[in-house]
Each structure stands twice: as C-alpha cells, then as structure tokens.
Amino acid sequence: MSETSLEAVIEDLSMTFVLEDVTDPECRQQLIDGFEEMADLCRKENAPDMARVCQRLAAFIQEESPLAPAAREVVSQTLTALQTVARGARAMSNAGVPDALGLEEQPGDEGEKGPEAAGRETTEETGGGERDTSRAFGLRHPGNLPDHLDEEDFAGFLFSQDTVLENIESLLFELEAGDTGGLPRLKRLFHTMKGEAGFLRLDDVEKLCHRAEDLIGGDDDATDDYVEVLFQVKDWLTQAFAYYRRKTDTCAPVDEIMQRLDKAAFERAGGDEQSGDEHAAEAVLSEITPQPAKADTGGDKKGGKTGNAHADREYFNVDAERIDQIVNMIGELVVVESMIAQSREATEQASPAFTNLLSQLGKISQGLQRSGLSLRMVPIRSVFMKLRRIVRDLSRKQNKTVQFIITGEDTELDKTIVDKIVDPLMHIVRNSVDHGIEDRPENRTAAGKPEEATIEVRAFHEGGNICIEVADDGLGIDTDAVRKKAEAHGLIDKDEGLAPDAVHNLIFMSGFSTAGTVTDVSGRGVGLDVVSNNLNELKGRVSVRSDPGRGTVFSIRIPVTLAIIDGMIIRVGEKQYIIPALSVLSLMAMEGADISSVYQKGEMVQFDNRFLPVLRLDRLFHINGGDGENPIIVVVENEHNRAGLVVDEVLGKQQVVIKSLGASMQHIPGVSGGAIMGDGRVGLVLDVGGIVALAHGGEDDGAAIMD
Predict the structure, then answer these.
(1) Is 543 helix (H, G, I), strand (E, B) or coil?
(2) pLDDT tens across 189-223, in order?
(3) Max CA separation in the chain (angstroms)
(4) In this structure, are residues 644 and 634 in contact, taking their beta carbons and an 8 Å threshold?
(5) Buried (b) or exposed (e) across 136-171, using 16+ Cβ within 10 A?
(6) Contact present, 528 and 610 (Cβ < 8 Å)
(7) Which positions ≥6 away from 354 have C-beta within 8 Å?
(8) Residue 351 CB-density burial (10 A; 0-12 exposed, 13-18 middle, 19+ buried)
(9) How far apart are CA 383 and CA 510, in angstroms?
(10) pLDDT for 492-539, tens place per residue?
(11) Is the pLDDT of residue 33 over 80?
C-alpha cells in the first residue's frame, strides 16, 4: 500500500472537515465525494478494510443531515483512526473506529480480505506457527514467538530497549574515559536483555548479549579494542531492533560481531586467536587478566554520568497513540472552554456564581493542559548521546583529539520535535569536526590553543523556545572563501556588499560546500541545507556566528511544543489572526507614533531608540477595510530582529490549539498554522519569523503572499 498517498488524501479531508463549515450542504457534499473517492483509492491500494470504513463514513454523513455535534465527533474519531492506519501504526480492526459509525460485518465481506486478514486466518487455522506480529504494531520477528506470548509483549520489549541502549552507550563512554565503576551495571544490562530476548526467542540477541556479558569482567580496566567491540555490539543491537520494528529492511548477520567478541576475549586473555575455537574462547573468558587503562580524551568530562539521573523513578510503556488522543482531547477542551467564556451567556447574562465556576474551569483546563503536554515531553539527552558517538567515531577516523562537552541534557522537548531534531544536529556536529577543527595539533598550538579541541553542545530555555548551541574552538568560518565560492556559483553578485554574518549564512544554501575534495563526510554540498529545511518544518530557526581563528557557534531556536500556544488575537478588516504571545514585545497606538518613510526601506517606526520596519497586514494579506479608525502597531521580535505590524484591533489573549493547514497550504510565507477561535471561526497563526524576514526584506517581498 502506498501509505504516503493515502495519508496525504486523509490529511486533506481532515483539514476540510476541521476548517470548513460542515453544516453547509456544499461542504457536506464535498466530504461525501471525498470519502467515496478515498474508498476507491483504498481498493486500488489493496486496503479493503479502509475502503469499507471510508464508504460507510460517506453514507453516515449523508444520513446525518445536518451533522449534529455527536455526529461530528463520530466523523472526527473515524478520521483519526484512518490516519493511524495510513501511517502503518495499527490495523483497521483495532484502530478505534467508533461503534456509532454503524460499521457492521456484511455478508459479502468475506470475499474482500487483505493480506492482514488472510494472515490472521492462517494463524488461527494452524493453531500455532509464526504469528502475524505486523497486525497491530508493524513488527517483524526473526522466527516464531512462543505460543503464550503475542505481538504486544514483543512490542513492549522493543520499545523499552531504546533507553537500555542509551544507558549502555553512556556507560561505555565512562569506561573509555577510565571510569570502571559502571562495569557491574553494564554487565547487568546485558544480562537482563539476554534473559528477555531468550523469553521472546530472539536467539541472535540472546547469544550476543551472553557473549558480551562474559567479556565484561568484574572490576577490569578497559583497552581501546575491548571498549570498541562493545560499542559495535551496541550498534548491532540498535540495528537489529530497528529491523524488528521495520524501520530498516536489512540487518547484518550476527556471526561477524560474534567473531570480534571472540577475538577480543583471546586478546584480553593473552592468547592466540588462531589457536582455539569458540568453546575455548568461552573457557578463558572468566580468567581475563586486566590490561593497563588507556586514556581517551574523546569522552564527556562535564556531562558524562547521565545514566543514573532518574534511576529512582518508575516508568512504564504507554502506546503513543493514547497519549496523542489525550493531548488532542485536552486541546478540544481548551477550545470549548474558550468558546464558553466568550459566549453571550457568559459575558452578559452570567451570575457571579457562574462566573466563579467558569474561572475554576479555566484553571483546571490550564492545569490539565500542562499535565497533558508534559506526557509528550522527553529529555534531549538521547539526542546528545547520539552526537557524542558521532564526535567520537569521526574524530578517531580523522585522527583528531576532541573533547566533547554536553550541558542541559535534561532540557525537555516534545517527543515529535526530539525525533526530528536529530538530523539537523548530526549534520552540524559532523561539520564542526570535519570543517571546524584543525587537521593537526601543531596548527592549534601555533595559534595559541591547546592540542585538544573542544566541541560543546548546550540546551537551555529562552522564553517559549528551546535554544540549542553547538560551539567549537576551531578555525572558524573563512568569510572570504565562502564569499568567493558563492560568487563562483552565482549565488551572489561580486559587487554585492554582504555583511559577514549574511555571508556565513550562505553555507545553509543547497549544494554549497567549501570542501576541496569529496569524502564520505563532506564535499557534496549536502548537509547544512538539510539543517535549515528541517528546522523550517519545526517552525525553528538556525543562525551561525563565527570568529575567524577562534571558533564557530551554531544556534538553533525551536518551540517547546507544536500543539498549544498562548496567542494574541488581532483583527485586520473582518479577519482574525493569532500572533504567538511570546513574540510580542509591545503595543502602541499608531496615532502619535513616530513613523517615517525611508528611501528604499519604506515606513519605519521608532521604538526603544531604534527604527523598525512597519508592515501593514491588510496589504500583506490583501484584506479590504484594513487600517480602521484607531490602528495599533504590534511590535514583534524574532532572533533579535524586530518589526511593527499594523492591525485594526487587539481582541485579547487566548490559548489556541494549532492545527496543520494540510499539504496544499504548508508553505504560505508568514503563516504557520490554523486554530479554532472562541466564536468557532478559524484564524490563521502568524509565523513571526517569516513576517519579520519579509519586513526586513522590504514590503514588496510579501506583496504576492496570498495570491
């Protein structure tokens, strides 16, 4: 099945349902036609269960005319179920289609069964054999699960191993740095994984963990080869678990890594690897003689011991879909509470007792919202550990001595953002090691710097955003080299007088590279443009500042969550928009404001002893009737850049649930999403970063923004 195409169609139908007036007959007919077309597409894609649900949903909307609130909830839940199935997270049979949809088994359904249904029948008929572990969780077992276990047990094991592997890698870094205190815990982690793998008949995992457990001594010191092979064991386990979860289609055979373990065992025992077989290796593993420790400066000297930070807490696995459902329902509660608070009955006819109850409801909904969002928050530590490994491996490959420092690893982010921030940070760190750090230690000492280079990654909160900085003390960016390369590629004109910071930001353009030769690390012009593109999807920003000869700092700003924000509601003409409240600095009446017209820069307003560009939103969005009797200037800021937005009225502050605008409206400059307002209408959430960029680039740049 083409999950991407089905998911895109369902997303468009969802946005139509959310953003349009479903009580309008024309809109209702559009939904009916859309779900019927979706049913035909599902049949072509060999998804009969989804086709039947779509067909029934079209009939349901036809029957429920007009769509009452209860009927709209049925449609909403069914859309959520379809989205879950299209992403491959669940089968249609257990995706949560509401009973109220009236989806009953039809006599003719037996003749229209997909591969999933056929697989279930085969398992039931044979009474054993290989189970269909892909039915609910999309998993792949290398053999057969025991009869008394099911795919949920398998999924629980796999999803818990991410933390185990992170802890293993953290302990290996400590061991490599000469700290052997974590050896007993490292051995226990492999022992526990071995037992659980054996319980699930994961034979290769069980054998590998058993061999690794035997290799780890009691209070042994560690040689480079010994630690290196354990890193490779961890890498193989990561790859194997990804294979079982169908995140990759290949997994290397376990035999090669087992041979490396045997070799390490012989070398630590002082034996000859050619003189014995596998059983001989096991015989000497318990008699390993410690070797002198070898210091390695590639470890983390400030944030190294992160594995035990939360050892006293209890954790349990929860299906991510359940958390998403809770957060979505909390979001709907916030919307409804806002609608009640703004209703005429609440503002004009409410008794003091009702007003007090409404205030209590607001406090409870805000507390519930904070608690709900916290369920999706995870520390960024796991991302930093991946970066730590990249620095270690790449610096060794390039014979560079690098100290890697992490701070703020307990800073929390929305899980969806954490998953997507890995690639941008990985590219930045690889760039720092490859381009930033000097090739030879003597080059550093000649510049008055220590032979050992430093790369520091730090995370911290700033307003409503998370800031992540990657700093190195290397060469810095060669501004002239970047400028010449950009001119050679036609990216800028030779007579274009760009400031150094503007020149440095050219490195984020697609295809740009200053590397002289192409290697497996750099030179292809692919990397930092990925950083910029990925961060744009997260509503984030990246900037770079560099001091030639002293180092470079990459700064990333991303929102803590993409779900709910505090927004300032503004009116332009008859339209309402939402500005993220954290981006608003001040409000001022346009009457009496110090506004001037500057040649080639347009209107400017003086604020805080600075002249800021003025952007009239009615012109930007082509709205008639803007700039009313008493317009207001809203001063906003993004990455130290400010602008004044002219609006007709500021209606107040409100928490809003951000909704995606769908694939067809993803790239509208100056707009980041939509939200349902207190009166039930849809308002657009403004992208302050995009609007400020338009303001500083000239108002003409945004003239066709909504064409």
Answers:
(1) strand
(2) 998 888 888 888 898 999 999 888 888 865 555 56
(3) 94
(4) yes
(5) bbbbebeeebeeeebbebbbebbbebeebbbbbbbb
(6) no
(7) 346
(8) exposed
(9) 25
(10) 777 666 777 777 777 877 666 665 554 444 543 445 777 877 787 777
(11) yes
Q: 579-604 pLDDT, tens per residue? A: 988 788 889 888 767 777 777 677 88
Q: Burial letters for 521-531: b for 16+ Cβ neighbours within 10 Å, e otherwise? A: bbeebebbbbb
8 A C-beta contact, residue 299 and residue 385: no
User: 119 is written with which tokens?
Assistant: 């697989």
Distance CA 650, CA 517 (A): 56
Model pTM above 0.70: no
DSSP summary character for residue 474: S
User: How many percent of the chain have pLDDT more than 70?
Assistant: 77
SS3 state at 340: helix
Does an H or E element contain 329, and which?
helix 320-341
Give yes or no for a contact between 62 and 36, defined as CB atoms under 8 angstroms apart.
Answer: no
Q: Return the bridge partners of 382, or none.
A: none
What's the token pair of residue 115? 């591969």
E-state strands within 12-164: none
Contact (CB, 8 A) for 485 and 443: no
The three-class DSSP label of residue 459 is strand
Output the pLDDT for position 311. 42
DSSP string, 368-418: HHHHHHHTTEEETHHHHHHHHHHHHHHHHHTT--EEEEEE-TT-EEEHHHH
